[in-house]
Amino acid sequence: MELGVAGVRQDLVDTAGEHHIAAEEQRHRRAAHISTIAYPALRVHGPRGGPVGRGPADREVRRMRRAETSQSPLRPRDLEEAGARLSEQADRLRSQLALAEEAASALRADCDLDAADAGAKAMTLRELRTRTEMDTALLERTVAALDRLRAGSFGICAECGRPQGRERALALPHAELCVQCAEEREAGPGG
To answer: What is the pTM of this model?
Structure first.
């Protein structure tokens, strides 16, 4: 089967057009790659056209974007609300600790009638002691948060000095660290 002149010409045009399109796509990919090296935040697609987000640099860019959007400053009303919540919690914890101390004193003063009573009393005292230790630790963190509020450093990371973000500061008023520093501390050295 023989192609006429028109058929050969059309084949040449198609081939030339495909080469032109391929070269154009290659130029676009090269330009996109170079721009993402210079400006990683501009990367929209990975090298194969898929979504970005697998490498450490990509995670860092996403973390920075999240931090920028969540670090809206605390308003005076937010600070008042946090202070009221923290003061209320501190008062409640102090009264719980006082009640726990009274209960522990009453249990220690109570006489044991038999071994079962002694075992139950020892178990109750252990539970009270555990609960008291947890409440004491929470009270210390609450008082520290109130101190940061008075000093004007509430909502600021104690480690890196960056804002924790409005949402984090209001949701976890005891938190001393921003999300990134808390994650790094939890991961430990080399993690």
So the answer is: 0.57
